[in-house]
Specification:
Length: 293
């Protein structure tokens, strides 16, 4: 939203400045044409034409300067220091040693695989739940805060979803508590129910985000855990369309399902990690840091 407003303001400024300069140029050009129609006015006309050409060059230069200053599009205008920091391998204002000492990308990937496998296996055995992979694992570079990409990545595991609904307050609560008992055996902390008013989240926001003021009436549940001090985040979400009294959630889920192929409702599991450094890049990361004070 902020970026769009900035670009809109730049466009407005460009339009205003361009229109003003164009009007001035047309006035001067008109005088020039009128002047060259008479022998006596040709000298004045030549001067006017020269001014018009200068204004045209000035207009382009001014617009370019405004656009560069406002958007940060400094191609060809960056200082050597800016270019250097654009290639910073870490994250602005974050201690780079943190990324070297924390769980590696490969470590979180292994933890995600073993945790997800164990949870799915036990929930199938206990409740008969069947599973489908609704999204593949992804990695994408983290921005470094200086206009470039760091050597760190944001990791999102495979997302797993049940093929059948998980419905009813007592049943959903039992399923979530079972998940919690499993993941703590893999080093994760106890889970927090973001959708529960006891979590401390503003009740108004809870109602808007989860479709009801209390867990008993909500369409969506969102439970969360982490493995601090490491950077892994574990999510278990339940969508229960039996609580959708307006039909709005079902319509939204149908659109999502058509786009992604994931089930309309049920339990979903996912693990996310921010600012992850691969073991394969640790030495390169340390070497790259030596360029920076």
């Amino acid at each position: 939203m902020i970026t769009s407003l900035i670009l809109l303001a730049i466009g407005a400024a460009d339009a205003f400045l361009g229109a003003t300069m164009l009007v001035l140029q047309l006035v001067v050009l008109g005088l020039a044409v009128a002047a060259v129609a008479t022998r006596a006015g040709r000298a004045l006309g030549a001067i006017a034409l020269t001014i018009s050409l200068v204004l045209n060059v000035g207009t382009m230069g001014a617009l370019s300067a405004v656009r560069v200053a406002a958007t940060g599009s400094y191609d060809g205008h960056k200082t050597e220091k800016q270019k250097l920091w654009e290639g910073y391998p870490g994250i602005k204002d974050k201690d780079p040693s943190t990324f070297l000492n924390q769980q590696s990308l490969e470590g979180l990937q292994a933890l995600a695989d073993e945790t997800m496998t164990d949870v799915r296996t036990q929930l199938t055995a206990k409740y008969g739940l069947q599973w489908v992979k609704s999204a593949d694992a992804q990695e994408r570079p983290e921005r470094n805060g200086y206009g470039g990409e760091s050597m760190l990545v944001r990791f999102a595991s495979d997302t797993w979803a049940t093929t059948t609904p998980v419905t009813g307050y007592a049943h959903k609560l039992e399923v979530m508590q079972t998940i919690e008992s499993i993941i703590v055996q893999h080093g994760w902390r106890g889970m927090v129910a973001f959708n529960d008013p006891a979590s401390g989240v503003d009740p108004t926001m809870i109602s808007k985000m989860y479709g009801g003021a209390t867990p008993q009436t909500q369409v969506d549940w969102e439970w969360f855990s982490d493995d601090e001090p490491d950077p892994g985040w574990f999510y278990a979400d339940i969508t229960d369309l039996a609580n959708d009294v307006t039909g709005e959630y079902r319509a939204s889920r149908e659109q999502t399902s058509q786009r992604t192929g994931e089930p309309l409702e049920g339990l979903q599991l996912a693990i996310v990690g921010r600012y992850m450094l691969s073991e394969k890049k640790a030495a390169e990361f340390q070497k790259a840091l030596t360029k920076y004070p």
